[in-house]
Amino acid sequence: MTTEDLKAFEDKIYAFVGREVCPPTPAKDAVNGAMIRQWAEVIGDTNPAYTDDTWAATSSRGQTIAPPAMMYVWGQEGFAVTTGRAPDAQSELVNLFNEHGYSGVLGTNVKQEYFKETSPGDTVVMAMTIDNISERKTTGRGPGYFFETLATFTNQHGEKIGTQRFKVLKFIPQEQPAAAASEETLQVPTRIASPRGHDNKWWWEACDAGKVLIQRCKNCQTLRHPPRPMCGECQSMEWDSIESTLEGEILSHTQIHHPKIPGYQYPLICAVIKLAEGTNFMANVVGCEPSDVHIGMKVKGVVEQVDEKTMLPQFYPA
Ligand SMILES: [Zn+2]
Known about the structure:
alpha+beta, binds zinc ion
């Protein structure tokens, strides 16, 4: 692609910034207790503010509320999406990327902000625009552009409930190494990099240093894993951590056969391990035959370098 072609392409994609993907559209159903109950059950959130009418009646709100993270749920289209949807600015933009070779797609980030609660009976109205498109970036996946949609949610009174930013990378997939290349010239692929966000970067940095930490609520001392900002028991956001002994017992396990992802060694055993400290932990079990792995098996973890870039706890038979 010449510089002029690239400029012409970028003029076209940047013209999408600010365009409406969908006008303010009320959800087909009002916020309702049945959907909240099912969502809370699937997520495993037992907060009575969501599902217990009697408890909620005595709370400061006076009634149940919907989990704020549900705001994107109410306007979902259901099976209609499988039979094709009307073209909009987002699908036009995606098609434009595809036509120019940027056929790869990777959702990279979702950020929600909450401003006001909703309760059963409220109607959630969603509007969406294409908010921004990055300059051309070189990424591990190939060259591409990040674009971000901004969904704004309001209630039936026009009051803002929240926003959701969804970032997507559209990229030109990298060529696979030629099959004829000799072993020596092929770079050994590394594992998928750990996602390091605001709430879990600290955990991975400790892992890089050879330690597995377990987050602990400073208020009620409850341990939790994986890392998250709030204590599920007392809602405190104050926390510290303890170092795990990495002694544990297998609660559940599976062997991954397909797809075989470059950078991983097979057989690949993934297990949920109950650590001696009490929290559950998902990791690979190594150092034994897959057929030896069983529920109740005692294991001991070691943080090891599994490739050029990655430190990970691996669990061996104890
Ligand atoms: Zn707590």
